[in-house]
Amino acid sequence: MSVIALANQKGGVAKTTSTLSLGAAWAEMGDRVLLVDCDPQAALTYSMGVDPEDLDVSLHDVLVGRAGIADVLWEAHGCHIAPATIDLAGSEVFLLTKTGREFVLGRALTKVAEAYDVVIIDCPPSLGILTINALTAADEVIIPLQCESLSQRGMSHLLETIEDVRQFTNPQLSIRGVIATMFDPRTKHTREILSNVTDSYGLKVLEPPVRKSIRFAEAPAAGETIFQRAPSVPGADAYRQIARELRDWAPEPAPPPAAGAEGAGTSEPRNDPPEAVRSPTEAGPAHEASAATPDMPQPPPERSVGVRTIPIDTEPL
Ligand SMILES: Nc1ncnc2c1ncn2[C@@H]1O[C@H](COP(=O)(O)OP(=O)(O)OP(=O)(O)O)[C@@H](O)[C@H]1O
Ligand SMILES: [Mg+2]
């Protein structure tokens, strides 16, 4: 299981949109995906078609020790989601007084580690204890960055926080790169911002940039991913390409097996987990929220919410 946190304390830079789009793109490739909504605003939960107000358990219960992560799962768009509610704001307060508070999410995730190929955590727009938990649980952090002036304000602070996490709670954490969001190829300025990110902070910009499209704003209101709403917009393809690159990237390629060696060429393919791997269903009662993709482990129809039909004029969260 690889754990990726999408973090940037700046609001509205497409952390949630990127989490959902990458997750859906990964699921399309046949991987078992868990999305974790670590933001009390619960925009990811809402975008997955799950109404936070209808939930009796959520990630908050996991963080305060009342539930396991497998007890709070829902399924939509081929991904499982550990949903958030506004209660999550209370988790921050609860955790502040606890020893080992930075490790709570990471510990919870280890219990379902074998059930997923990738876990993507949507962070809130702050560098508080929820984001620190996400960074402590993660193998990699990706920074969504809106391609507009002043978008890099706060970048140093974010990088310092990541460095602190490396030093104190998660030495393995690496910065995978920046996703350039809401990119407008017509302006020279946006390209300048990206080269500045590379030059000033030494960060890799994951290619291609995600172009601006109104379809991204429309999709969650319709309970759809960008791939369902507008599969042909360049931004949709960008998320697919980035997901593919992230997935195929191997930090240390294994050396080719010696000719004739026992087991040569029989290493487990990534999409074919060992039989002992349990689905989150078996790990605990997951809920069913929508038609799952054929590749996802299927939770039993214990409780079906159906994907919520959200009126188009619903106020954004
Ligand atoms: N490529 C894009 N083109 C146009 N609009 C986009 C694009 N990506 C995201 N948006 C829109 O930008 C707004 C902010 O996106 P999103 O909610 O994903 O940001 P965020 O970083 O998660 O915000 P917050 O910090 O509040 O959690 C949303 O209305 C979303 O639909
Ligand atoms: Mg968000």
Comma- or semicolon-separated keywords:
Rossmann fold; 317 residues; binds magnesium ion; eight-stranded mixed beta sheet; alpha/beta; 12% strand; 34% helix; binds adenosine-5'-triphosphate
Molecular structure report:
The radius of gyration is 19 Å and the shape is globular. The protein has 317 residues and is α/β, with parallel strands linked by helices. The protein is 34% helix and 12% strand. Strand 6 (140-146), helix 7 and strand 7 form a beta-alpha-beta unit. The chain has one domain (2-8, 10-250, 276-283): P-loop containing nucleotide triphosphate hydrolases (Rossmann fold). It has twelve helices and eight strands. The relative contact order is 0.19. Strands 3-4-2-5-1-6-7-8 form an eight-stranded mixed beta sheet, sandwiched between helices. The longest helix has 15 residues, at 234-248. The structure holds adenosine-5'-triphosphate and magnesium ion. The site of magnesium ion (MG) has 5 residues, from helix 1.
CATH class type: Alpha Beta
Ligands, ions, cofactors:
adenosine-5'-triphosphate, magnesium ion
Strands of the widest sheet, in order across it, are 3-4-2-5-1-6-7-8
Query: How many separate domains?
Result: 1
CATH topology heading: Rossmann fold
Beta-strand content estimate: 5-15%
| Rough outline | globular
CATH architecture designation: 3-Layer(aba) Sandwich
Number of helices: 12
Could you give the order of the helices and strands?
Answer: EHEHHEEHHEHEHEHEHHHH
Count the E strands. 8
Q: What is the name of the CATH superfamily?
A: P-loop containing nucleotide triphosphate hydrolases
Low-pLDDT residue intervals, each spanning 5 or more residues: 260-317
Overall SS class = alpha/beta
Helix content: 25-40%
Sheet having the most strands: 8 strands, mixed
Mean pLDDT: 83
> Compute the gyration radius: what is it?
19 Å
Our measurement of the CA-to-CA distance between the termini, rounded to an integer number of angstroms, reads 31 Å
